[in-house]
# Entry
Amino acid sequence: MAKTIYDFPEAEISWCPGCGNFGILTFLKDVLAEVAPDPQKLVLVSGIGQAAKLPQYVKGHYFNGLHGRALPPATAIKVSNPSLTVVVTSGDGDMYGEGGNHFIHTIRRNPDITVIVHNNMVYGLTKGQASPTSSRGFKTPVQANGVILEPFNPLAVAIALDASFVARIFMGFKDHSEEVLKKAILHKGFSLVDVFQPCVTYNKLNTYQWFREKTYFLDSSHDPKNRAQAFQKAIETDKFPLGIFYQQTEKPVFEDQLVAYRDDKTPLFERKPNLDRVQAIMHKLRQ
# Structure
């Protein structure tokens, strides 16, 4: 396996042997080495969970936050220094469950960040409960009679909210996955990449073989600029499409619209505080 600038040789990885997270880690490091070759300009952000451990195994900057709270600090980091490449990597439970409200409103804001969600359709860290994306009928130690809820559809929600880049990959297909990840990171605006990946310990239904049999690639007949067509593809469940569902390049980016950057493009972290203005505001608040 080729080494990259993002390899962290001393890291002891705690995932189960055969976990799909290993493939995602490899693909992401390969892509980052190509599109973001300076580790000093990269920040990985995550919440809590097995997937959220990924930034700890990459040689670079990272912020590990509270459960479901990866997106607010990622947005703030990008606003503070727009020159950074900000990538969020977390699991389906962390992002779509605990973090569901942040997921919705970050799409609305459209910051220039990439969100990679490890979707194994189960909670792997807390021993196998159903996650928001678990299928109806899926049995777990907690849902002993099977899941009765409709699975959360992140792609359909993102497209309905007019997200600027929406894609799905399966980590079992390396070349395709890296191609999509590369385009997601280079895209300016909010990019969602939902990644099918098996949990070999707690999900015996959605296996490597299951994902290979239940997926297909979007071909040239699909127009990623056609939002209605993208939504129709997103709600397919007999087989799940893989590829770029929807992409738009003209949607305003959150940080570009902020008043703070209207007349001064200096990153916020480089600016000196205007103490006179701060004191004037404090004085006004005390009145």
